[in-house]
Write a structure and sequence with these properties.
Elements (H helix, E strand, L loop, with lengths): L1 E5 L5 E6 L5 H16 L8 E4 L2 E8 L2 E8 L4 H19 L4 H6 L1 H11 E2 L2 E2 L4 H30 L2 H11 L3 E2 L2 E2 L2
Antiparallel strand pairs: 1-2, 1-5, 3-4, 4-5, 6-7, 8-9
């Protein structure tokens, strides 16, 4: 069904649904999951039956990482999936905290999408996921550099643009020598 990460106060910091639900139903599910896991005795297992599914959760500091899966799915595999997700977040953000999830939510979703596809666990190698995220970071940095250069060019006065354009292509233009 999906993944939700509420904090102790019940504010959802990350939610990803793999089945279509109305917004009101999503809020209802998040509230019910929060109510189930927050008030649960730590001595109990990390698996709770929920409607026709199963909630698998794990607490890290003030956040509860929870997955809602089919009743027949392997609980331990998904419990390890949660731990893998937190380990990768910790590596990527250097000691991850709740604010990292709030202010870098787009990166968190990218990480999640690297190993969970359509609600199913696809990649279990921490090394492979971190390498792919590193490649995405390099591409992102390159795009930022290109955007910065483009904004600098467009901010130049017209005369400087002409000189800049001529100096960049000095020597050849589409394979032909310029005289």
């Amino acid at each position: 069904m999906g993944m939700a990460d509420p904090n102790r106060q019940g504010k959802t910091r990350l939610a990803k649904y793999y089945v279509p639900l109305e917004d009101s139903e999503k809020h209802k599910v998040e509230y019910e999951v929060h109510r189930l896991v927050v008030n649960r005795d730590p001595k109990f297992t990390n698996f709770v039956e929920f409607r026709t599914h199963k909630i698998i959760y794990r607490r890290y500091a003030g956040l509860f990482f929870s997955l809602c899966v089919d009743i027949t799915d392997n609980e331990l595999a998904y419990l390890e999936c949660i731990h893998l997700f937190v380990e990768i977040l910790d590596h990527f953000f250097s000691n991850v905290c709740e604010l990292d999830l709030v202010f870098n939510f787009h990166k968190v979703y990218l990480i999640l999408d690297e190993f969970i596809l359509a609600g199913e666990l696809q990649e279990t190698s921490k090394k492979a996921i971190i390498e792919r995220m590193g490649e995405l970071e390099k591409q992102d940095e390159l795009e930022n550099i290109l955007l910065l250069q483009a904004s600098h060019i467009f901010a130049m006065p017209r005369a400087e643009k002409a000189v800049f354009s001529a100096s960049r292509f000095k020597g050849s233009l589409l394979g032909k020598k310029i005289q």
